Amino acid sequence: MADAKNKKEIIPKLPYGQGTINIMPDGETYIYKKNIEGKRRSVYGKSVKEVMSLMSALERDIKSKKVHKENITLAEAMYNWLERYKKPKLKKTSYDTLRKTISSRIDNHDIGLIRVYAIDADMIQEHLNSLNETDCLSYSTIKKCYDALNDFYRNYFLQGKIEINPMLAVQMVNRENVIKETKKIEFFESEDIRLFINQACSIFSWSKKPKYQYGFCLCANIFLGLRAGELLALKWKDVDFERGIIYVHENLQLVSNPSGVPRQIYETQSLKNYQDRHIFMNDKARHYLELQKEYSNFTDASDYVCCTRDGRHAAIAYLSNNIKEIENCAGTKVRAHGTHVIRHTCASLYFRKGVKAELIASLLGHSVDVCRSTYIHFVEEQKRTAVELLDDFNIQDV
What we know:
Layout: H1 2-9, E1 20-23, E2 30-36, E3 39-45, H2 48-71, H3 74-86, H4 92-107, H5 121-133, H6 139-158, H7 190-200, H8 215-222, H9 228-233, E4 239-240, E5 245-248, E6 251-256, E7 264-269, E8 277-280, H10 283-295, H11 316-330, H12 340-352, H13 357-364, H14 368-374, H15 376-388
Antiparallel strand pairs: 1-2, 2-3, 4-5, 5-8, 6-7
């Protein structure tokens, strides 16, 4: 006890605001308590000198973290969030898309340079409004930015890094208030389908070979509605001619190459929503796929249906180039050179035959909501047709 008393006598009395040093009941350990940045902190040591040194180190560490915390910009914080929390669970294509959204819609704007802890709901709302009113971006592009900010701030709030989530007060721009018109869905009408197919199936008289490397595949897809990546990934083992079924379970997508050379590479990925599906072939789809196999030099089970002349899988650019050439030579009214025109044409045929949106969504691999919003023009057309059926109603039949 005498030793403990001696130790108490040498404990210094610290100036106001610098905390207190005391000895623990064991008579051996010192404790230094001090308020740092509004929180009570404690360190322990075997001497006054040790606890004072430990407290100084702790204070420096806390203040350095605070400086970094205050200086980090919104863009920097979102990139950190992307790498740490989103990358492990996203597909490579989804990761690339989100990174591009942060880069082009946050980092390249003034809001991306503001310290993340200084941003409030008004700033975010003003930014979203400017994407519409100044940049004149589409609804879907603005929505991607809104969703990214919403997801980021929710994560930041749950981590305790902010006391209030500013996104709770932010409103997404209403679709009807978006200045840029919604991109029109382009598809072939009946005459264009006829012109396109006749040209796509052309055979050179002098070589007895198809004029277009992917003509038959594109014709078949008018009646299948596969995504371009799904068509590229399709192999002959996935095509069951006997049962009339195509099994869709992979998707080839362009993703950023980590090594940087080339900048983008094709990567095999699972389907959207991670759900394999199968599609029944009608007679037309079967016919064009049989022609594709007849004229192809690569017909083993593991060979690609849409392949290059050396047997490798094709690329989206190759399909687009074929579509452009076919449209120009055929003289189609619609000149949409992207691969989506084929898929949209298939959807139009289903809708105009009165097939329900739920079934179309299943065939195309969409969610029902996405199917209805993407093909709203056809949905409205179906409603109009349904109402017109009542014109034949005879009141005398009641």
